[in-house]
Specification:
The chain has 325 residues and is of the alpha+beta class. The chain is built from ten helices and 17 strands.
Length: 325
């Protein structure tokens, strides 16, 4: 008998459209000989499944669907929401309470890695380099001179709990800082002001299969804009993503080893992607994405393609491991 798999998409963040595209790709990749796939759309309080033109509502008390009088439950959940509530631990905690298996990191790991400020502190405690930064909460007193004395210019202002560079700005002049702070606060109540590190931007995917953590490949990102913003991430004409990255072997080895270590330190599961800047002074961790994009323009699918890995088989392994616990 086929297992019922819920592929959850949508969400409440600025990455909504990206989540829809990612989920469509994943749903098409799942083995239909093994699984009955149900794309579940979440948007605020509306949790729905659409079949033909009929919309069915999820029973949130037990995460079930009733279709034509028959109630069905799910054997496993594939969370494909970038941002709230899929990447920050909320859905993971919900499914933990219902004892429903799901693919990927647990609630604690998801919440920690989604908060850039706290994640940076944990990662740096293992001796890994990060950019100097200042964390602000909405309502804090902002003393620009104190911030810039520590961080300098240029700098990045970014929401602590967001992805795909949503709400992010590069600040080159002191007089532009306030607008950047307001822009970030429009997306989150907590933000990070981070020192600009000049260098080459690289990113590395990591997976855990059969209790073995393995780095995938390294991609170099060369943005044709001032930095790799939301538009550049999903418009192939605005950035070059080179896989494998044409970098020194020493940097490749360091990046892969560091990515595997961080993945293990944090207790990740499933697929994660780790972003860095490197220059002559070393490798700087920027952030980790525990539900990275899976669109046609996304980096992880390109890394898997380069390695010759079958994404459908990989998804089957993730689902079966999640079900087994």
């Amino acid at each position: 008998m086929k297992k019922n798999i819920a592929v959850i998409t949508g969400g409440n963040s600025g990455e909504y459209e990206i989540s829809i595209k990612s989920a469509q790709n994943i749903a098409k990749s799942l083995d239909t000989d093994l699984y009955q796939v149900y794309p579940i759309h979440l948007r605020h309080n509306e949790w729905t499944f659409t079949q033909d033109t009929t919309v069915y509502h999820i029973n949130k008390n037990d995460f079930s669907l009733t279709i034509q009088g028959k109630k069905l439950f799910f054997d496993c959940v594939f969370i494909v929401i970038h941002g709230d509530p899929g990447e920050n631990g909320k859905l993971q905690g919900y499914f933990d309470m219902l004892s429903i298996p799901y693919m990927g990191c647990n609630a604690t790991v998801s919440a920690l890695t989604f908060d850039k400020h706290f994640c940076n502190h944990v990662v740096s405690s293992y001796g890994i380099k990060i950019a100097p930064s200042v964390c602000l909460f909405k309502g804090d007193t902002v003393v620009e001179n104190d911030i810039l004395e520590k961080i300098g210019l240029p700098c990045f202002v970014k929401p602590c709990n967001s992805g795909s560079s949503v709400g992010m700005s590069k600040v080159n002049r002191k007089e532009d800082l306030q607008n950047a702070l307001q822009f970030a606060f429009n997306h989150d109540n907590q933000l990070l002001i981070e020192q600009y590190i000049k260098g080459r931007e690289i990113t590395c995917g990591v997976v855990k299969i059969n209790n073995t953590v393995q780095a995938l490949a390294i991609t170099e990102i060369i943005s044709k804009k001032e930095y790799f913003d939301l538009e550049a991430k999903y418009n192939p004409n605005l950035a070059d993503e080179i896989t494998p990255a044409q970098i020194p072997v020493t940097i490749e080895t360091l990046c892969k080893q560091t990515s595997e270590q961080i993945y293990q330190f944090l207790g990740c599961k499933g697929i994660a992607r780790l972003d860095y800047i490197y220059n002559e002074t070393g490798l700087y961790f920027i952030e980790i994405n525990t539900i990275p994009g899976q669109t046609n323009e996304s980096i992880i699918p390109k890394q898997l393609h380069y390695l010759g890995w079958d994404f459908s088989q990989l998804c089957t392994l993730f689902i079966e491991e999640a079900i087994l616990g």
